[in-house]
Amino acid sequence: MPGVVVVGAGQAGASLVARLRKDGYEGRITLIGEEPAPPYQRPPLSKAYLLGDMALERLYLRPHHYYGEVGIDLRLGARVDRIDRAARCVHVEGEAIPYETLVLTTGSVPRRLPAGIGGDLDGVHVVRDLADADAMGPQFGPGKRVLIVGGGYIGLEAAAVAAKKGLKVTLVEMSKRILSRVAAPETSDFFRALHAEHGVDIREGIGLEALTGEGHVSGARLSDGSTLAVDFAIVGVGIVPGTALAEAAGLPIDNGIAVDAEGRTSDPAIWAAGDCASFPYRGARLRLESVPNAIDMAECVAGNIMGAARAYVPRPWFWSDQYDVKLQIAGLSSGYDRIVTRPSAAPHTASFWYFQGETLLAVDAMNDPRAYMVGKRLIDVGRSPDASLVADPGVDLKTLLA
Ligand SMILES: Cc1cc2nc3c(=O)[nH]c(=O)nc-3n(C[C@H](O)[C@H](O)[C@H](O)COP(=O)(O)OP(=O)(O)OC[C@H]3O[C@@H](n4cnc5c(N)ncnc54)[C@H](O)[C@@H]3O)c2cc1C
């Protein structure tokens, strides 16, 4: 029997095959990945691994021998070029691999700068995979000048690593503030101040006009007319879902591979999970780009392949590490109409609570695991605290759970 074939050996793909085996699936499982490395965690690529504080072995989600031991046929360095839905097989460099059930966990693809503005010069990097981090790492020498394009979490994390390593860091963000797509102005202010303390030159409301250089990047021209000399550049301007394979196979795409509540595409033999998939959520479609979503959705789909018929309900959370600050985010902030700040006397510590009316939507907690934990529990069960209690540092947050 052809069994389950999973395309994309990243966080979601690895979680899905492990869950299938754990839950007793006895059929054949094939996990196909384009990258040469066995499945690994990506978050350290812009944090501890880039800093040189984490060994390669610790990135791997499981030891390489695990896959063979539990009967998972792991094919690495193998790119699936095409899905043949009529014949129920995928094509990998001329070989047809049959499937009974196919799962697409193809992740996402980083946006790159166009070649016309210097995006193809040597020394212009993105941070999506291990090869990107390994190519960039040797450039992080003290005194080097790096330009970071984009003030989202990945750009800011790379800036923190570079500043810690003694580089001269300039970060440009086209919109009027860093993190504008994902966080409230209060959180942007917190991180702007943190980076300023470490000497990072953050320029907001300023776009990149072009990277310049002969073969290798050596300069940048900004939208305010200024120019910069740079030794290398890191581009963190977002990602797009990896939908090409699904689209070519005629599957519906809607900000990602469109799946139903259980994770199935319009073809009952094909499922999707992780960064590449958009699923129904509160009357709309949602696509999340995070490790917790990749794991939870993949595990839910694994159960559904085995007949659980369970709708995927995300319980969103996320984190970021910059210098000595651990940011933990619970919930989804979109639609908020006010921010309640919980002050803290401790340095680099705060939490911002996103409300829509009286409803708590999300919490950004900086170095405050208690605020994160309480906020997450309340959001998970759909309860909202009185905002005045949240804002009062004299109130023990744990009492909000009572
Ligand atoms: C630098 C960085 C830092 C991050 N930090 C955080 C963080 O702090 N917290 C957090 O929650 N999330 C973070 N994320 C996001 C998180 O890593 C992703 O959301 C998660 O990896 C998504 O898992 P996935 O399995 O959907 O996709 P991926 O892990 O990207 O895996 C997809 C895999 O599919 C492969 N593939 C694609 N097409 C094909 C094909 N045709 N044939 C074969 N293989 C194919 C790709 O090569 C890739 O290996 C970070 C991401 C990056 C890049």
Please give a structural write-up.
The structure is a single chain. 23% of the residues lie in helices and 28% in strands. The protein has ten helices and 26 strands. The strands form seven sheets. It has a five-stranded parallel sheet. Strands 9-16-10-11-12 form a five-stranded parallel sheet, with helices on one face. A five-stranded antiparallel sheet has the order 22-23-26-25-24. Strand 14 and strand 15 form a beta hairpin. Helix 1 runs parallel beside helix 8. It is globular. The model has no long low-confidence stretch (mean pLDDT 97). Bound molecules: flavin-adenine dinucleotide (FAD).
Low-confidence stretches: none
User: What share of residues are in beta strands?
Assistant: 25-35%
**How many helix segments?**
10
Report the biggest beta sheet as strand number plus sense, adding barrel if it closes. Answer: 5 strands, parallel
Strand order of the largest sheet: 3-2-1-7-19
- Give the terminus-to-terminus CA distance: 53 Å
Helix content class: 10-25%
The strand count comes to 26
Bound molecules: flavin-adenine dinucleotide
Shape: globular
Radius of gyration, whole Å: 22 Å
Which structural category do the helix and sheet elements fall into? Answer: alpha/beta
Mean pLDDT: 97
